Amino acid sequence: MRVAEGAIQGPAIQAAMQGAMQAAIQARRASARGGSQAPRR
C-alpha cells in the first residue's frame, strides 16, 4: 500500500509544485509590469 501511495503522490506533488512555480512566475511578471519590481529578463 505504501508503494502505491508513493506512486500516486509522486506525480501529484510534481504537478502541484509546477502549478505553484507557474503562479509565482506569473505574479512576478504582473508585479514587474506594475513597475514596483525591475524586470528580470
From TrEMBL:
Domain of life: Bacteria
Name of protein: Uncharacterized protein
Species of provenance: Burkholderia singularis
